[in-house]
Design brief:
alpha/beta; TIM Barrel; 6-stranded parallel β-sheet; 4-stranded mixed β-sheet; globular
Length: 397
């Protein structure tokens, strides 16, 4: 029985995906309106396996939030604090180096570093900790700063965004994070992140970084006050930016966490909505190689299911995470490599440890047991070829 022969009439969209034709915004909205999650997941899984085979990746990374003091007051944020608050924090360079050394003992290959827009730290603080962290071990890949942080640092440095990025790159910055995209449409953005950079500014920062040869990820915060139309608008802007610059390595949809903020939403997105959003993202973002199921926001079990709904990556070990957990996430602070490998295997996928740029470091065979800790991984090996093009699943032929 054809999965798309039901009353929703999505056979034409199935045929477009199978043929490799680009979906329109109207097509994407129809997919978001579908209640056939199994059929939608099967189509997204087909699109993913055609691009990535049966591989699913993870990264050994550690999050470091250097400070939660911030001059902004985004309505959705439970992380930021003002200087008058007694639970704000600010790490010294020495504390960040100590965390990096701890991470090395766990085999970490990436430090993921973001923070608030600090009201008084000088630009030299940021270039200083980049250089200090690179000095710990040059193999540590530094993925740092959101677009709005870059705009803030450019203001501090009194330089253009381009010159600011060049100076940060010289100090050791290797990749920008994708955080801060939220929802691009102005009417929604003003309700959840008053005073934050615009969609155009977010995309311009990434475009400038890509023009300098840099790579970055991108995100979408969903499940609050936005509509399906707003989500498609967001995905469409990312797809158009990728057409222009080609610098996004992966897309990470972030499920909204409803606690401890000023948005009047009682519940985050349901499991159905999380899987549907991942599936539509995979189908719509036809120029993206990778879509990540962010286990911190979804939970590892839901991220595991997402591997059959278009996702091919489950993110990383994290070690310590503040932003989502201060907003009410119930997931652990971090997870062991062994658990990520097991989750990927149970989903019928081939576990692949990757680096910051989604390049394979190692591919696990069926008999290897992943350790919970170890030494720093060797330099990334050349990625083995992806599995042969996946056949069209039963029900999609």
């Amino acid at each position: 029985m054809d999965l798309f022969n039901g009353p929703e009439g999505l056979e034409d969209l199935r045929d477009k995906v199978v043929a490799g034709d680009r979906l329109t915004p109207e097509d994407g909205l129809r997919l978001f309106q579908s209640r056939d999650l199994n059929g939608l997941g099967a189509l997204a899984d087909f699109a993913n396996r055609r691009r990535n085979g049966l591989r699913a990746s993870y990264i050994l990374n550690r999050y470091i939030n250097y400070s939660n003091y911030c001059i902004l007051s985004c309505q959705f944020c439970a992380f930021s604090r003002k200087k008058r608050d007694n639970d704000g924090f600010q790490l010294t360079e020495e504390q960040m180096v100590a965390k990096a050394r701890e991470a090395l003992a766990l085999g970490i290959t990436e430090l993921h570093i973001v923070g608030g827009l600090h009201p008084s730290l000088p630009f030299s603080y940021y270039t200083g900790f980049l250089r200090a962290l690179k000095a710990v071990d040059p193999r540590l890949q530094l993925k740092c700063f959101t677009a709005v942080e870059i705009l803030h640092l450019a203001w501090l440095a009194r330089k253009s965004v381009r010159d600011t990025l060049l100076e940060l790159k010289e100090a050791g910055l290797e990749s920008l994070t994708g955080g801060g995209a939220e929802i691009f449409r102005k009417e929604v953005r003003s309700k959840i992140a008053t005073g934050k950079e615009s969609a155009e500014e977010y995309l311009a920062v990434h475009d400038t970084w890509h023009a300098l040869g840099g790579r970055s990820t991108c995100t979408m915060l969903y499940g609050h006050v936005e509509s399906p139309e707003d989500r498609i608008d967001h995905l469409d802007r990312l797809r158009r930016q990728q057409d222009r610059s080609g610098g996004f390595t992966g897309f990470i949809p972030l499920p909204y966490q409803p606690d401890n903020n000023r948005i009047p939403v009682r519940h985050g997105p349901s499991g159905f909505d999380q899987l549907r959003t991942l599936a539509v993202s995979r189908l719509y973002l036809d120029n993206f190689d990778h879509v990540t199921a962010y286990w911190v926001g979804m939970g590892l079990k839901m991220a595991q299911i997402a591997l059959s709904h278009g996702a091919d990556d489950v993110h990383g070990t994290i070690v310590e995470e503040h932003i989502f957990h201060m907003a009410g996430a119930k997931s652990p602070q971090g997870t062991a490599e062994r658990d990520l490998v097991r989750a990927i295997r149970e989903a019928g996928r081939i576990p692949v440890q990757r680096n910051t740029f989604y390049e394979a470091i190692r591919v696990w065979d069926k008999t290897e047991e992943a350790p919970t800790s170890g030494q720093m991984a060797a330099a990334p090996a050349t990625s083995a070829p992806a599995s042969p093009e996946a056949p069209i699943p039963v029900g999609l032929a």
